[in-house]
Design a protein that fits this description.
396 residues, alpha/beta, TIM Barrel, 2 domains, 11-stranded mixed sheet, 9-stranded parallel sheet, 29% helix, elongated
Length: 396
């Protein structure tokens, strides 16, 4: 069975169409792994705590619609996005679950779209709250719009200062076109082994909530935990947790690796497009940063930095072919990269190369690349461009 969703291809990966549809390079999404990760997370939560699956940035490059659908079927009850268009995309796909826009929205056009598509915005300031209320009044919106109050407890990003939370909430309470759905904040150092700053942020959050309750206002929902905090301790869970990286099968920090059983959801694969023998002294790729010291069997692979392979991995990365590691050589180019396959003389054109993923006992993860590049696995996942089809495994 085969269906198309923009540039996303969904089919049974055992069908005859598999080889044809993924001929150059592709990103493979394992929905069973995704479902497993969501179920594992829900086991950590008390019955009163809901799970928000964060699917912003096209679900960290995995495909927002199919990820959202799978996460909701597996135990999530909310979705988190960064922008209004991301929320609209999910609604257009027929997804009816509540969707929180985590980013800032200010313009009348954005506000009208939020109302039209029944999205739920984050309010970060009194000024923004007034713009929302005035815009909704102008369009004669017929019921209060659910909104979420964000407090800055130490991230120094979006949100009203936690010390001004009570005044902010009082203002929003008075605005007839708005109704408070939740109050939340975001942790800056939840992935650190040292919990000092995280605990300080939690205490500030608790203090702000206590001041709000002293006004006689009971917040309907509180949430603070991101992926790392969800894995750290139950006191951070409150009424909902917002899980991003962990639902995609990666750990936010090494010290949390044993806290839950996760399965990576994404694999990145490509095909060998040419095999050749080069002589000793031959340079490979732009600038000849690699020069063969002996006769070498070289494979060209049809994937490059325009697809999301970081050029800074040139001459550093390894890939998997037939379950064995082989080194990448020369500068990674826009559409192609080269491998030294001298140890595998039987490799021919058309064979599959695994850049991220598992073959046999060997595995290369986004964390491996991130460590080599001194960055984070979030950036690696989000970097794979949309000219790579997302090939989604469908069980059955």
């Amino acid at each position: 069975m085969l269906s198309h969703e923009k540039n996303r291809i969904i089919f049974d990966c055992h069908s005859d169409s598999y080889a044809w549809m993924s001929q150059r390079a592709w990103v493979e999404i394992d929905l069973e792994a995704l479902s497993h990760n969501v179920r594992q997370l829900t086991k950590l939560l008390s019955p009163r705590t809901q799970l928000m699956a964060v699917v912003k940035a096209d679900a960290y490059g995995h495909g927002a619609i199919v990820v959202a659908q799978t996460a909701l079927k597996s135990g999530a009850s909310w979705l988190g996005v960064a922008t209004v268009p991301e929320g609209i995309q999910l609604r257009e796909a027929g997804i009816e679950a509540p969707i929180l826009i985590l980013g800032a929205t200010h313009t009348p056009e954005q506000i009208q779209a939020i109302a039209q598509w029944q999205l739920q915005p984050t309010l970060i300031s009194p000024k923004q709250a007034l713009v929302f209320s005035n815009t909704l009044e102008e369009i004669n919106y017929d019921s209060p719009l659910p909104v979420h109050i964000k407090l800055d407890t130490g991230m120094s990003r979006l949100g009203t200062n936690w010390q001004e939370a009570d005044e902010f909430v009082k203002l929003v309470q008075r605005l007839p076109y708005l109704t408070i759905k939740s109050i939340y904040s975001h942790l800056a150092t939840a992935d650190s082994p040292d919990p000092t700053v995280m605990k300080q942020q939690q205490q500030r959050f608790e203090t702000a909530i206590a001041q709000i309750r002293a006004l006689g206002i009971e917040p309907p929902c509180l949430h603070l935990a991101n992926s790392a905090a969800t894995l750290t301790e139950e006191s951070l869970h409150y009424d909902m947790v917002r899980a991003g990286l962990v639902i995609y099968g990666l750990y936010p920090a090494v010290h949390l690796n044993s806290s839950i059983d996760l399965k990576p959801v994404m694999q990145v694969k490509a095909r060998v497009t040419q095999v050749k023998i080069i002589a000793p002294g031959t340079g490979v790729s732009y600038s000849h940063q690699f020069v063969a010291q002996q006769e070498l069997r070289l494979a060209v692979v049809g994937i490059g930095y325009a697809d999301g392979i970081p050029r800074n991995l040139s001459n550093k990365m390894q890939v998997l072919i037939r379950g064995q590691r082989v080194p990448q050589i020369g500068n990674i180019t826009m559409d192609q990269l080269m491998l030294d396959i001298s140890a595998l003389p039987e490799i021919q054109e058309g064979e599959v190369v695994t850049l991220l993923g598992k073959e046999g006992e060997e595995q290369i993860s986004a964390e491996d690349w991130a460590n080599q590049l001194n960055t984070i696995s979030w950036e690696i996942l989000c970097g794979f461009k949309h000219r790579l089809p997302r090939v989604t495994r469908v069980s059955g």
